[in-house]
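[#protein-structures] MJ: dropping Threonyl-tRNA synthetase here for a structure pass
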Amino acid sequence: MIHITLSDGSLREYDQPLSVYEFAASIGAGLAKAAVAGRVDGVLVDCRFMIEADARVSIVTPQEPDGLEILRRSCALMLAMSIRQLYPKAQLQTGAALGDGFFYEFTFKRPLDLFDLACIEARMKILAATNHSIRCRNPSSRSMLTETSAYLIGDFECVSVGPHVPATRVLQAFALDHISGTAPQRIYGTCWSCQQELEDWLAPPHVIIVNMDDRQADYAQSVTETLRRSGVRARADLRNEKVRHKIREHSQQVPYLVVIGEKEKTGGFVSVRSRTGEDFGRMAVEVVCDWLRSTGIAGT
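AK: finished. structure tokens for Threonyl-tRNA synthetase:
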């Protein structure tokens, strides 16, 4: 017998090995439909992972941070497949989840533009609607978060860090929003667990957080989430672009900009300026939340 302990401490017994998906289905059809991955003895694994011995298991859904990151990582795979289908000679390089979304980097004989971006997003929506399975060539690997594996979407193969969602039908609330660079180019997008969350994200933000480079990406995202919890519509621009370019692009669109470099990250604070160029100096994140609420922005 295989003994599986659930997150609430309850115990279930099974007379043969079963996949994470089968375990979720044994609890309820709704949970199986919502499952994007599993957590087996604390390790994130694909839904196809086979449970062959006693273990503590929980089901991961898009309503938790790990599940949302898995959605975004899988969207990057679907983006790569769309690029390959539309531009067979493109050289795919790397992709990942990033902040509120994902990106994929590639090279092509010509720079792609906004028209291409719309075509790629349309192809992604077709792939999501036709529900291709996403499967790992080695579904029994327990090191999916630290090692790259070969993943298949239909007959398209791509190397990626897992785990990934079981099928593209899960990926419904996404949008592509930027294409940058020349050689290589990067396409950036966002992905959420439902359409309402996507629409909320697409609403004009009160604050844009920009980082100097990739070293501050995690801190910038944590600042963004802190501002959101305080009622401020905040969005992080984590693109691999020069910070001056990002500031110039956003300065005409949002009331306030939050700039984060290594000094801000190390000190645990941020630099704030208005779209008119007024510099409010460095502040602790909690002070920024209180200050923005005092301006009446939160809740508008």
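MJ: nice. The mean pLDDT is 91.
AK: one more thing. The first strand starts at residue 2 and ends at 5.
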